[in-house]
Structure formats: C-alpha cells, structure tokens
Amino acid sequence: MVFCVEADMTAGNPTLGDRLGDVLSERTLTPPGGRALPINYILGGHSAGGHFASVVGARLVTKGYPDLKGAILFDGVASDGFTANLQAISASGSRPVLQISARPSLTNLFNNAFEALASLGADFVGIQLVWTRYALGVAPTGGSCHIDAEGENTDIIGIIGAGCTPDDTQVDRLREFGATWARDLATGIRTATHWCADARNLDTCGREIKRLVDRTLPLAALVRNS
Question: Please, which domain of life does this record's source organism belong to (predicted)?
C-alpha cells in the first residue's frame, strides 16, 4: 500500500511531519475501502519531501513504533534537523537509510544531504546518478536531473526550477533501484545486485551498481558513507 502526501514541503514541513508520525504510530490512519493499515512502514520522499520523510521517521522512532523498516530518499534536500532525523531512523546503521542522488546543482543545494548520510555509520547509503558525457574530453556534463523522480509527471514549474528535464535513462535507473530497495526493506532481504557490503570498496558491490560506477557514461558514483 502506498500513502502519498500532497502538501507544502518547504523545509520539510515539520509540523505536518510530526502529525503524520503520530497518527502512523498510533495507527489511527484509516485506509479507504475497509483495508487494513500495513504493519511495516517504509518512508520515502523527493527533494524537500525527503526531509519531510526524515521528520516522519524520527517521530515514529520517538513514539517507539517497532516496525519502521527504513527510508529511501530521492535526491533529498536537507533542512534544520535533517542529520538528527536520519540518525534516529538509522539507529547506528541497523536500519537502512538510502538515497538516490542527482548531480550537484543549486536545486539540491549541491547535494547538501550527503553530510547527514555520511554520518550514519552505515556500510551503504546509496548511489548518485551523474553524468552523460565529457565536454572536450575532460569535464563531465549533463546527466541526471533533480526532477528525475518526477519523470513524465513533472510540469513546467519543476523544469524551470530544476533547470533541466528528466533524463529517461536516469528515470528508469531511479525507478529500478527505488523499487528493488523498497521490496528489500519490506521483506528483509537484500537483492545482492543492488547493494554494497561496504561502499568504500567497489569490489563488495553488486552487479547493477558496478555497471553504473565505472568509467563508462552515463557515469554514476557511490554516496560515500565516510
């Protein structure tokens, strides 16, 4: 079951995040059609919504909810309290917190979420989808866009704000990794092709990550955990 929030996500909207964390922890949220609310929760969010997800997760931890399985962020942008929120969710690396990042840009505040991710003490915190080509054989350019997470559902406001349009190759990769990780968090397994045992050593990474993190283009990178 997927629960989506449509609201102002400026600075992660901590007031709403705390309220949602409360109703999820107290299990007073009622799905439509008489369906049961799932027990296991996985959090996700794009851009400022990534910070919102961190607020909800930290609130669930504070309330003692036992079945939070982790978080997957899509080029999350950090605001005040982001590091502490992710640390609460991660619980010293025992609960997965993962991010699929775009190339550095003004829109994602030049990957300002990386410092928080690196503080978690986890062996693997995600991947960065980066470049499509080299300009004059030297400087990598193009590639992933902050709104790749929106894909075909983006609009002119998103395109103007991001200064780029979703890249089909990167959109497909983002969806593949996001869906695989979400399934893994829900089931407690690890699809070896999409994880690293230790992000400091590419040899410990699975086939699909190695396929991205090499010297071919589009070039990707690991989000470093230390």
Answer: Eukaryota
Give pLDDT tens digits for 143-186.
789 999 999 999 999 999 998 899 888 899 999 999 999 999 99
What does the H/E/C string look like for 153-166? Answer: HCCHHHHHHHCCCC
Instruction: Please compute, for residue 21, the number of CA atoms within 13 A of its CA located in the half-sphere on the CB side.
Output: 25
C-beta separation of 90 from 97 below 8 A: yes
Q: In sequence order, what are the residues at sequence separation of 6 or more whose Cβ sits closer than 8 angstroms to the Cβ of residue 13?
A: 7, 48, 52, 55
For helices 48-62 and 14-26, give the axis angle rounded to 10 degrees: 40
Taking the CA atoms of 162, 120, 209 and 149 in sequence, report the sign of the dihedral they define: negative
Question: Where is 211: in which H helix or E strand?
Answer: helix 207-212
